[in-house]
Amino acid sequence: MRLARQTTIFQVFVASPSDVIEERAILEQVISELNQIWSRSLGLTLELLRWETNVRPAFSLDPQTVINDQIGTDYDVFIGIFWGRFGAATSRAESGTLEEFERAYSRFTNSETVPEIMLYFKDAPIAPSKLDPAQLKGVQDFKRSLSARGGLYYDFEDSSGFESSVRAHLSAVAQKLSQSRFSTILAKEAQAITVAEDEDELGYFDHIEMYESKIEEMTIAIEIINEATIRVGEQVSQHAKEAEKGDPQNIKAARRFVTRAADDMDSYATIMKAQVSTLSSTRVVAFNSLSSALSLRNDFSRNGDEDLRELRESLSSMKEGSLTARNAMAGMRVATDGLPRMSKELNKAKRAVVSQIDGLLSELDSVHSTINNIVEAIDQMLGE
User: What pLDDT, in 10s, does the model give residues 107-118?
Assistant: First the structure.
């Protein structure tokens, strides 16, 4: 029985005044890049909602009402970005962006779960010719009001800092959304399996199909880990190069690069956590299904043992791949653990990455051990 792969779409609405166009473009790029991983690893895709692409020309009480009506309130994540402008007032709020936030916040207070609300404030100089004191005051007043409403916001200094931060934060949100999604899917899978077993006991081909399906999921998880490992290595190296180019006496600048590296490592640890969890669950189902299939093989006549030999070869290749992956990740663990203790954020990120690598190493050891046992059983069936 092969269970269909499902992808769930979660919507992200970005709200901001007009002075953070660069950050809006970065958010779109980050979501696009992460979706390439998450659609396979977490079974989810984030759809970015923004007025530039999701609102068509129309008439209503005012332009903001047109946006409100077409965007709706069913999105799962609200991202607000602010710098020096607060936006034009509407008949209902001090600015259109504030009105959009209030709609999201009202929905959140009613449900206490959705939407996820993430607010970012750019802490960078503003050219005098572009500075509007009244607009800036609106941003600052809004920012000061958030703590009393239970809000935690994030400051960033430049586009690179925003990219690192929002990537890490979206990864955490995706992990939370995927856990909710997987709880639903696992319940459906368990129900489907129970129904199948009640109707008719699973046979050889059912177990083989289940095994192949789960092996495919394991392969994808390992590919995603490899991609994420390469990416975080490149990101940390880039931050190190940027730090070397700067003034060695500028502690604030150096800390900024370290914080970005920590954010990237946190994002990596989040991706790793999801994949290690996938490996653990799929490994058990895959090899239990294969063992069940092998135990049923003698129930019917087969011509030759070619299928067993092919299976043994496939398992041997899988074992070699797991050993190669284990050696690479063991080296990654040593390199990560050896990073200097430069900040609380970096130290915490190091521990998170090392913990997930340890979990992955344990899973790869289990894969190796289980394959050895199954190959021995196949050898006995072949009389070799």
Answer: 999 987 789 999
